[in-house]
Amino acid sequence: MPNYESFKKDIDKLIGINLDYYKETQMKRRINSLMTREGYKDYDSYYSAMSKDKEALARFINHLTINVSEFYRNPNQWKVLEQKVMDHLKENNRGSLNIWSSACSTGEEPYSMVMMLSEFYPLDKIKILATDIDMGAIAKAKAGIYVEKSLENLPDKFIKKFFKEENGVYKISDEIKKRVEFKKIDLLKDNFPGNMDLISCRNVMIYFTDDAKAKLYEKFNRALTSYGIFFVGSTEQIIMPERFKFKTFETFFYQKMI
Ligand SMILES: C[S@@+](CC[C@H](N)C(=O)[O-])C[C@H]1O[C@@H](n2cnc3c(N)ncnc32)[C@H](O)[C@@H]1O
Question: What homologous superfamily is domain 75-256 in, according to CATH?
């Protein structure tokens, strides 16, 4: 299909998402399927409709950003986090930890972190930075309302302690919500915060090109403290992490090399 190149440029101008950094075949397939479903035959007419219709644009962003998440996603990795990574971080940092959940989507990941950390620290000592490119996802995260399915892997003790169930819908408690600061950060464009003890970047790098990934690994490395840990998704192991000054701490966890 022609005009994808100019479509990418128009989208970047309209919403600031640069599709050049996303794997092309995969992204095009997703865009084409939505475009057809919405009844447009080419990128020009689809773009022109989106530039006038905010709801069509919101559907596009929603489809593009793939917000699927859940609490304690890949529970075995959370066990490693709770048992081994926390030991390492507490040994190296006797004060309060700086933690960043990047690409936090609708909040399941940063809220899981607060609950896990509540086993080690009083809640008022916990603060997590959670960021995403998609303000719609952030709005849902701030609302903190979830379906039962997304809680499947979360330990029962946390569900009992930190959620209120009403008609099958689960509302997260304010004491957990208050511990997370949500912000918009585009990983591919924006500056990163620094001095982080732990950064998670899970289930988003799979959509990026190898070039974009390499740049990101370097940026994440610089954003960590000297002993900091980088936590990735279950299909996102780093090949030859030494290239990016990381060494394997445990599978799916990398420690900054100094
Ligand atoms: C599948 S979700 C991952 C959520 C969570 N980390 C997890 O593993 O369950 C991917 C998230 O990446 C976000 N995303 C996509 N491109 C991004 C970018 N360039 N910068 C920041 N976030 C981005 C999407 O908006 C989406 O919320």
Answer: Vaccinia Virus protein VP39 (3.40.50.150)
